[in-house]
Write a structure and sequence with these properties.
This protein has 124 residues and is mainly beta. It is 3% helix and 47% strand. It is built from one helix and twelve strands. The strands form two sheets. Strands 3, 4, 5, 6, 7, 8, 10 and 11 form an eight-stranded antiparallel beta sheet that branches. Strands 2-1-12-9 form a four-stranded antiparallel beta sheet, with no helix packed on it. Strand 10 and strand 11 form a beta hairpin. The radius of gyration is 15 Å and the shape is globular.
Length: 124
């Protein structure tokens, strides 16, 4: 399971992987990442960006597919911090079932969100 937490709320998503996308604050280009739970961590399985520019150059191993640069970072992370910014709009969160909604659908908008694998103690 994946947990989304703000300073005032925690939400457990009954899914083992999610897609997260947003518009870059300067370039206004779509960025997307796919995460999968592995034990008590999240693996950044794939990242893609529909262009390049300020702070978003694709790495050398990225391949252009269907108009986006895609690569597989393989990073194993304890958590991912999602900043709230008036310049980017809301994140879009997609469950592995294919259901996609703005992050504000699940949690109050305008707050920083921490994305992590749920601790088994939280689930019991």
């Amino acid at each position: 399971m994946i947990c989304l937490a703000t300073a005032s709320a925690t939400l457990m998503l009954l899914t083992g992987s999610i897609g997260l996308s947003w518009d870059h604050s300067v370039e206004k280009i779509r960025w997307a990442e796919h995460y999968r739970v592995e034990g008590d961590r999240l693996r950044l399985v794939e990242a893609s960006v529909r262009g390049s520019g300020a702070g978003m150059e694709p790495p050398p191993e990225a391949r252009l597919e269907d108009g986006a640069w895609r690569w597989r970072p393989g990073l194993l992370l304890t958590e991912v911090q999602l900043a709230s910014s008036e310049f980017t709009g809301d994140y879009t969160l997609c469950l592995d079932s294919g259901l996609c909604r703005p992050l504000g659908h699940w949690l109050p908008a305008g707050q920083a969100v921490t994305l992590s694998a749920c601790d088994s103690a939280e689930v019991n």
